Amino acid sequence: QVRLVESGGGLVQAGGSLRLSCAASGNIGNINRMSWYCQAPGKQRELVARIFSSGFTNYADSVKGRFTISRTRAKDAVYLQMNSLKPEDTAVYYCNTNTLGVDSWGQGTQVTVSS
């Protein structure tokens, strides 16, 4: 079991920046990938960014060039640097890991971008 705790969300004006953090604990040795998802009201949860054990990363087209995902070598934390924020980025952001095919989720952190 992996426990995930997000932090760093808040209210920011358009064009501003936030850095989200996710602390991972428990059975983290076999984590295959670490991801950030977002979910806006009335919308499905969507993948924002993902980093694999190899270091390979994937980004949603909407955030490419603005957001950067990174992690510690021990896989005990994953971060999302969010720059040039837009009102449409407003959502709850969730940390996710996959361990031997099992998904774990954090509680989410609210990001609100004002125009």
Layout of helices and strands:
Blueprint: E1 2-7, E2 10-13, E3 18-26, E4 31-39, E5 46-52, E6 57-59, E7 67-71, E8 77-82, E9 91-99, E10 102-105, E11 109-114
Parallel strand pairs: 2-11
Antiparallel strand pairs: 1-3, 3-8, 4-5, 4-9, 5-6, 7-8, 9-10, 9-11
How much β-strand is present in the residues?
A: over 45%
Structural shape: globular
- Number of continuous helical runs: 0
Quaternary structure of the protein? single chain
Name the structural class: mainly beta
Output the radius of gyration. Answer: 13 Å
| Helix content bin | under 10%
Order of helices and strands: EEEEEEEEEEE
The counted number of beta strands is: 11
| Rounded mean pLDDT score | 96
Distance between the termini: 40 Å
> Unreliable segments (pLDDT under 50, ≥5 consecutive)?
none
Biggest sheet character:
7 strands, mixed
Write a structural description:
The chain has 115 residues and is mainly β. The chain has no helices and eleven strands. The strands form two sheets. Strands 2, 4, 5, 6, 9, 10 and 11 form a seven-stranded mixed β-sheet that branches. A four-stranded antiparallel β-sheet has the order 1-3-8-7, with no helix packed on it. 32% of the residues are buried. The model has no long low-confidence stretch (mean pLDDT 96).
Brief digest:
The chain has 115 residues and is an all-beta fold. The protein contains no helices and 11 strands. The strands form 2 sheets. Strands 2, 4, 5, 6, 9, 10 and 11 form a 7-stranded mixed β-sheet that branches. It has a 4-stranded antiparallel β-sheet with strand order 1-3-8-7, with no helix packed on it.
